[in-house]
């Protein structure tokens, strides 16, 4: 096999610092391959994007060692290029890694990288930022913000804690939604999830049939719904059967515009979108990035 050159962008604080603790294991694994791996450590937000933009031409692929946020920054640094990217997942949610079937086991993740089996995938844009996996508006964005402040739990447990602690305080918000130029109308929404991939919050399924290869978003629209009904049907988030609930609609589209008279809590790939935002435009960018994944899974 031809010797490949991989740049690994390491976020040392991802997963509550697990990437830093597991870095010696990663070095041990890659040293047993016949390929070159160079490591670059991030020091601040958006640093991964800047590093990637600067060095990607020197490598056969750029790899994010961290969570969804690190992967998001690497892809923003690769936007408009043909350099493939990969992930060694070690963050809180690892939702994009689930979408492309990459194991959290470092040995298995590296074995997949060196197979170098990449395919084109869709990306999304939210105004001037690129995203990989999805956007959440309303309850989903609010929960994501609160989960960042949960220090005593890690991974998907911190997200689940944020979900249940948010139920008591979250109220539906008034929004105007437009999908592919069609006005859906103004109404109260509990949440709006725009999925390029299928997983959110560490494996929950708001858009269970979303695909990164079909040039469309899956859009989960949850209208105003009582808290007791959310709790009663929470298991449907795990099973991917949320659409059985009367207040839930899942549709598809390539361009979504959302605006409101109040600030919208929003996340993209688990990253907090700027506060006080009252309008966003979200667009699919078909077949616009090369990603190394486990396509036989």
Secondary structural class: alpha+beta
Calculate the mean pLDDT score and round it.
93
Task: List the total number of helices.
Answer: 9
CATH class of the largest domain: Mainly Beta
Q: How much helicity do the residues have?
A: 25-40%
What oligomeric assembly is this protein in? Answer: single chain
> CA-to-CA gap between the ends?
23 Å
The CATH topology of the largest domain comes to Tumour Suppressor Smad4
Major pleated sheet? 11 strands, antiparallel
Quick one: overall form?
globular
Q: How many strands?
A: 15
- Beta-sheet strand percentage? 25-35%
Structure description:
With about 300 residues, the chain is an alpha+beta fold. The protein has 2 domains: about 5-115, Probable inorganic polyphosphate/atp-NAD kinase, domain 1 (Rossmann fold, 3-Layer(aba) Sandwich); about 130-285, Tumour Suppressor Smad4, CATH 2.60.200.40. Helix content is about 30%, strand content about 35%. It has helices at about 15-30, 45-55, 70-80, 95-100, 105-115, 140-145, 155-165, 225-230, 235-240; strands spanning about 5-10, 35-40, 60-65, 85-90, 120-125, 130, 135-140, 175-180, 180-195, 215-225, 250-255, 255-260, 265-270, 270, 280-290. The model has no long low-confidence stretch (mean pLDDT about 95).
């Amino acid at each position: 096999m031809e010797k490949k050159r991989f740049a690994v962008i390491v976020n040392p604080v991802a997963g509550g610092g697990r990437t830093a603790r597991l870095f010696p294991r990663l070095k041990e694994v890659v040293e047993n391959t016949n390929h070159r791996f160079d490591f670059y450590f991030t020091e601040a937000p958006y640093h991964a994007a800047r590093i990637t933009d600067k060095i990607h031409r020197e490598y056969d692929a750029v790899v994010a060692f961290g969570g969804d946020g690190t992967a998001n920054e690497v892809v923003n640094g690769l936007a408009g290029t043909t350099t493939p990217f990969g992930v060694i997942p070690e963050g809180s949610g690892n939702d994009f890694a689930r979408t492309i079937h990459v194991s959290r086991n470092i040995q298995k993740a590296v074995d997949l990288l060196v197979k170098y089996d990449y395919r084109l995938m869709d990306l999304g844009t939210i105004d001037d930022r690129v995203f990989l996996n999805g956007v959440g508006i309303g309850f989903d964005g609010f929960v994501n913000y609160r989960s960042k402040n949960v220090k005593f739990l890690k991974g998907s447990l911190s997200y689940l804690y944020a979900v249940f602690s948010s139920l008591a305080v979250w109220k539906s918000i008034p929004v105007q939604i437009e999908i592919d130029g069609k006005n859906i109308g103004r109404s109260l929404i509990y949440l709006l999830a725009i999925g390029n991939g299928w997983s959110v919050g560490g494996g929950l399924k708001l858009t269970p049939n979303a695909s990164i290869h079909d040039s469309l978003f899956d859009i989960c629209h949850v209208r105003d719904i009582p808290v007791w009904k959310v709790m009663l049907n929470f298991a449907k988030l795990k099973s991917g059967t949320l659409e059985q609930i009367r207040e839930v609609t899942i549709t598809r589209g390539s361009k979504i515009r959302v605006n409101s008279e109040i600030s919208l809590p929003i996340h993209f790939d688990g990253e907090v979108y700027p506060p006080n935002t009252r309008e966003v435009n979200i667009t699919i960018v078909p077949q616009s990035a090369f990603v190394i994944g486990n396509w036989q899974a």
